[in-house]
Amino acid sequence: MPSVETLFINGHILTQNFRNPTASQLGLRGKKIVAVGTDLSMYRAQATQIIDLDGAVLTPGFMDVHTHFPEGGQQLLSVDLRAAFSKSEFIQILADAARTTPIDRWITGGHWDQQQFPDKAMPSKEWLDQAAPDHIVFVNRHDGHSAVANSKALQLAGITAGTPDVPGGVIVKDKHGNPTGLLKDAAMNLVYRLQPPESEEHKRQYLNAAMDEALKQGITSINDMSVDFDRLRWYEGLAKAGELRVRIRVYTPFLRWPDLKRELEKGIYQDEWFQVGGLKGFSDGSLGSSTALMFDDFNNEPGNCGLIDRDFEDLTKVREILWDADAHNIQVAIHAIGDKANRLVLDLFAELYESRGKRDRRYRIEHAQHIHPDDQSRFGDQRVIASVQPYHCVDDSRWAGAILGDRTSQAFPYRSIHKSGGRLAMGSDWPVAPMNAILGMQAAILRNNWIPEERLDLGTALHAYTEGAAFAEFSDHYKGHLSPGMLADMVVLKREFLNLAEVDLKTTDLITAVFSNGKLVHGEI
Length: 525
Description:
Distance between the termini: 27 Å
Largest sheet: 8 strands, parallel
């Protein structure tokens, strides 16, 4: 029997292995777990390092199944409008950023939320022109489905009163027909496509900031969604060079399946730090931007029931890609917010299953926010994973009632999906919401007291951030639970974690140490 190099004792170990759910001791050799139990003295040798947890909690490393990872790092280093609770604060933050930004560099980032403003007014080009008259400014809403451009950006993009909407997007105009600067969904690309490429130095800075933040939060693995092929090959090079400190699984744009197929045929280096997950598509927009695809109009916008994303405009093409990707055993993850969008995606998946037969596809619906009661049990019936972001529930609870009215009863139905046999995997959608798994778990448990019948318990929420997340990316055979042979990605937490519903996370940091591959990467022990 081989000895262990490190032995954790006196812990409250939540393994996420249903065959052995709790333990008090855990032994490591190298980067892997050797044994888990209540008495591992037989694995102890003279050189074994003993770590006394003194009653602390030990869990698998947290996983975030939905991020936009370098963008999150960029946000940490860019203008941050989440602190703007009024028009004047919005303008002041931008003006402060303009004073320290070279004239030839765009001002981007943002993550503003008009729901925080007293009058809920959408920002306009005039706000940006006042704050930064000499810069090109393009700052996005926190959900990433709207952004506002200043006059210089609109001029650069050639957007005028005569510019028509684009498929899957809206150019918002005032009562005189002039663009306000606000662009929704696909219309944002009219400006984004003109943005100068980031230097290699800046990209490295963003990624390192993102990895630092992830490890600080106990997150040892992430999914990066909607990754283009330049970034895919960039990650591949970093993985080959051993420069990744967080495990990254990427999903590439749905409509570019032929390109991914060619790249896979050429060969892509993949290891335990970097993997290609599959395809990520969009069926609709977002609730906050009034572009989520709903069966009925938004209460505050008669005549508007959202829009179908350009990825899903041609359902014949969608079926063609789905069927061909399935023939190549490629996982598919589709963004769906509105009740009509979720049914559309579930129907397409069901159609595929009926024609091709059942197998272990682990298809995912990203967000799965507003689910018609008739569709909630379909996640279990069809074995579709609900890849959800609980902090969105807290965000939306402040204002969704004014938009949806009685339909809010079907918002974020986590407990209903779970009880009907559906699998939950959780993440943040960072930088839309904080990349903080503990905050996400607490949001799933408390829900800001919004639709409390859909609350989850701590065990279910933790599972969705660990083993459930690993299952959602086909990696549950080597991470996501603390069992012999698994990678030693782990988080040590204060005992208060067991009463997470009662912890004030604004003043309490529950994480004391984070391990990746058996090595301490954050905190102390």
